[in-house]
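From the methods appendix. Each design record in this collection lists the tokenized structure first, followed by the designed amino acid sequence. Records were kept in a plain field format so they could be parsed without special tools. The example shown here is representative of the layout used throughout.

RECORD:
FOLD TOKENS (287 positions):
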């Protein structure tokens, strides 16, 4: 009976924690949505053909929480404004909607992880351009992408609430984030109770690194929350979290998959090799 009460208490504690986190996530997502709409023209205006500026710009947009920034880079890539190095910079820097959860639960970790992936995005973009030249990689020719204008400079609040807060943030993102977060916390709590998950992962950290990399290949937001939760609970080292964050890009690659599956595969192959190299370097020096 006591055990049942304990499990019931755990369930409601996790549910309460999930609601608390999701409330902060919701506010963060609205803020990012607003800033992206308001200042997207400024971002586009200062994009030049200078390769280094391209890496910095793309990595910056990729590092903004959520999928909006990397979607913008996807558009620039498909339109031929940026190249392979630029899209690599963005996909390395981004870690999808999970960024909102990390900012809500551990802002310090979010800033460290975000700062590192931003720098690594620039470095990875440079390496990607070198790789493209050395291996003589080819990509799908650019196409003309339609840009939707009208709300950037003078945002209509009714439109913003209905189309952006309600339809996009609340209906499209919040339910999925809530479910992944809740079940990640619930599964980890259950496994720690019966399987001693922390001990198991500690003994098999190299295997966990590869699992984190494979999960990072999925073009969705959600499953990667498992590794963020494990890191915050002290069950995995920072190197595994970083490798997973480098490789995964939330929904960020979905437009590229629709545009060119071959291009998307090249991006993912580069990212998994880059992410595992960085992850194992940090792992073997003790991070």
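DESIGN:
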């Amino acid at each position: 009976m006591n055990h049942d009460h304990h499990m019931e208490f755990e369930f409601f504690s996790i549910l309460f924690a999930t609601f608390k986190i999701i409330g902060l996530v919701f506010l963060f997502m609205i803020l990012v949505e607003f800033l992206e709409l308001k200042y997207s023209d400024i971002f586009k205006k200062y994009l030049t053909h200078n390769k280094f500026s391209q890496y910095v710009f793309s990595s910056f947009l990729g590092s903004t929480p959520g999928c909006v920034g990397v979607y913008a880079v996807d558009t620039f890539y498909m339109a031929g404004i940026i190249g392979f190095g630029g899209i690599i910079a963005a996909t390395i820097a981004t870690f999808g909607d999970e960024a909102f959860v990390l900012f809500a639960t551990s802002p310090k970790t979010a800033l460290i992880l975000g700062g590192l992936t931003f720098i690594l995005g620039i470095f990875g973009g440079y390496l990607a351009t070198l790789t493209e030249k050395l291996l003589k990689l080819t990509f799908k020719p650019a196409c003309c992408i339609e840009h939707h204008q009208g709300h950037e400079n003078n945002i209509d609040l009714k439109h913003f609430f209905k189309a952006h807060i309600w339809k996009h943030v609340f209906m499209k993102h919040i339910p999925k984030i809530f479910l992944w977060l809740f079940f990640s916390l619930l599964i980890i709590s259950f496994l720690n109770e019966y399987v001693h998950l922390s001990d198991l992962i500690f003994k098999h950290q190299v295997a966990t690194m590869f699992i984190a990399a494979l999960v990072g290949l999925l073009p969705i937001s959600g499953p990667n929350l498992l590794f963020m939760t494990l890191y915050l609970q002290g069950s995995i080292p920072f190197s595994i979290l970083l490798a997973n964050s480098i490789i995964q890009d939330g929904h960020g690659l979905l437009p590229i998959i629709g545009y060119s599956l071959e291009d998307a595969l090249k991006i993912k192959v580069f990212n998994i090799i880059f992410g595992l190299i960085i992850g194992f370097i940090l792992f073997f020096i003790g991070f």
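APPENDIX NOTE: Residues 144-151 have pLDDT under 50 and may be disordered.
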